[in-house]
Fold:
Amino acid sequence: MIRHSVIFVLKHAHGSLQEKAFLRDALVLKGIPGVEKFEQLKQVSKKNDYEFGFSMEFKDQAAYDAYNEHPVHVKFVKERWEREVERFLEIDYERV
Structure:
C-alpha cells in the first residue's frame, strides 16, 4: 500500500470562489481507477503555513504509477495545479 499525500498553499484568497472551485474540481481525482480513501483536508497546525492537503491510498506501486499517468490527473495538474498552487510538499508512504 502507498499513501500519497500532498500539502499545499493556493494562490487564491481564503474563502474565495476560486479557492472553492479548485477544491470542488479536484474531486475529479477520486474517480481515477486505483484511488482509494481520497480525502481533502484543511491544515490546522500552527507549526507550518500550508493550508490544505489531499490524501489517498493505492494498492501498490503499479496503481500509483497508473494514477500519475492517467489523463484526468495529467489534465488537472496541467490546467489547474500548476496555475493555482503557490507551493506544495508531496509525501508518499509505505508501511514498514
Observations:
- The chain has three helices and four strands.
